[in-house]
Specification:
The chain has 17 helices and 14 strands. By secondary structure, the protein is of the alpha+beta class.
């Protein structure tokens, strides 16, 4: 081809099973002329340090053979080969989610949750119980109560539709340092494998998902808080700290803190959920500033393809960074944890007071001539806010309420005779005690009637009603 190579590595994030190591990190070659994938052996494994498999169609004669065949060259030097079968375009499979009952089992054991107990007792400036309870409810934080990760915190990634995409597990020591990272589905798989037990049906299907982390942490809050500006950080832990220090999103001018998982996880696919929002990115520090540069480049890219969405990259950490913080790859949580959160709540109150635009608040000078105002507080006091905030004058949106739905479901379940045997809810879940299942779900919903997270419990009850209407299947 005149304008470059005909055979190129497939673009996008899709990965295949490697022809050598068998891991789903393989990028296949595609024929740019026909749009077809080349045979499975042609491609490159992304595990460069552990596999490094790369089979190039230009080095084994494949490209030359196809070229000669297409021009009708049947010279003695050309040996006919079997025609390359046309690869059929397979529809993208629907993602499989973590079952609700598996997720629900993490919503307990907070007294042994090391991270939560650190926030209450072991950090320099412990938080109040009411704020910890609220942040647990907001992000659906949970605990691993059994096994080798006992005491670890769970960070569920729940999408805007209320589906649990994945559950990250983080283990902390009592000095608030990370000692282990995992995913709940991996822990469950290891548990069954160790006992030579077959994996649950949902887990077998879940493992075939193309990606593990496929939405933003806290994404389910976007519907509940449609007007708040959004702060994006790398780790869920940092999002939790951001909320505890700078206030909860009940106030529409407060930031709604979300996370992408890690530095390389900031992607256009995830940010599509932010369409129309104002977004501030807070990348972690890096030794050479590459983290800030990477997110700044992506922000420029996203602005061009997500109209009406504003992306601003915060240089706060870059401005404050010491050499030690850069070496450690610190995030904003590492800076905040050393300071008293009450100062930031005071700053939040000051921020809400009307200030003349032409007379910005000037930091007070101490006797030594130094600014007494904390630079982080100053930054958030002056952080540029949304033009959309003006829309709040027309009234704050009311929280969603499901009183009518609750009444209808209660009347329905009270009008039927519940089975005493286990009931198969779907291919992935079985309810052993229907009466207990229904009572516990209604109790949770009524305790959190105005909270968006209860949509998970509501959907499960509606699903059970549908099963009953279709003549439930007993086990």
């Amino acid at each position: 081809m005149v304008n470059g190579y005909r055979y190129k590595l497939e673009k996008g994030s899709k990965k295949h099973l490697c022809a050598d190591c068998g891991v789903k990190t393989f990028v296949r070659y595609i024929d740019t002329k026909t749009g077809d994938l080349l045979p499975e052996k042609y491609g490159r494994c992304d595990r460069e340090s552990k596999c490094s498999y790369h089979f190039n169609p230009y080095k084994d004669g494949y490209s030359k053979t196809v070229f000669q065949k297409e021009r009708g060259d049947h010279s003695e030097n050309w040996k006919p080969q079997r025609p390359v079968p046309r690869t059929k375009r397979v529809p993208k499979p629907e993602p499989v989610f973590v079952p609700f009952d598996v997720f629900a089992q993490t919503r307990e054991g907070y007294e042994q949750n090391v991270f939560i107990q650190n926030l209450l007792r072991r950090i320099p400036f412990p938080f109040e119980i009411k704020d910890i309870e609220l942040v647990i409810s907001q992000y659906n934080l949970g605990t691993v109560c059994y096994g080798y990760r006992t005491g670890a915190i769970t960070f569920p990634f729940i999408d805007k539709a209320g589906n649990v995409r994945t559950i990250q597990v983080k283990q902390f020591d009592e000095t608030n340092h990370t000692t282990g990272t995992d995913f709940l589905h991996s822990i469950i798989e290891k548990h069954h494998t160790k006992r030579n037990e077959p994996l649950p049906g949902w887990l077998e299907a879940y493992k075939r998902n193309e990606k593990t982390v496929s939405c933003l942490f806290g994404e389910h809050l976007l519907n509940r808080y449609p007007l708040n500006p959004v702060a994006i950080v790398e780790a869920p832990k940092t999002a939790v700290y951001g909320t505890l220090y700078f206030g909860f999103p009940e106030q529409p001018e407060n930031l709604l803190w979300l996370a992408v998982y890690n530095l390389s996880s900031l992607s256009l696919e995830k940010c599509k959920a932010l369409q129309g929002r104002d977004v501030v990115l807070f990348p972690d520090l890096s030794k050479d500033g590459k983290a800030f540069e990477l997110w700044n480049n992506k922000a420029n890219e996203f602005r061009n393809v997500l109209p009406g969405t504003q992306f601003k990259v915060s240089d706060l950490l870059e401005t404050l960074a010491t050499n030690e913080l850069r070496q450690d790859g610190a995030d904003i949580a590492d800076v905040l944890i050393k300071q008293d959160w009450r100062k930031f709540r005071i700053a939040e109150t000051i921020q809400k007071q009307p200030q003349p635009i032409s007379e910005p608040v000037q930091p007070q000078k101490s006797e030594k001539g130094e600014n007494s105002e904390d630079p982080i507080q100053t930054y958030f006091l002056r952080l540029e806010r949304l033009p959309k905030i003006a829309a709040l004058k027309s009234g704050k949106p009311k929280p969603e309420n499901w009183e009518q739905d609750i009444t209808e479901l209660e009347n329905y379940f009270a009008s039927i005779e519940l089975p005493t045997q286990p009931v198969k809810l779907n291919q992935c879940s079985t309810i052993k005690d229907c009466s207990l299942f229904i009572r516990s779900h209604f109790a949770t919903i009524k305790a959190n009637n105005d909270k968006r997270s209860t949509i998970l419990f509501m959907n499960r009850l509606k699903e059970l009603k549908q099963v009953f209407n279709n003549k439930f299947e007993l086990i």
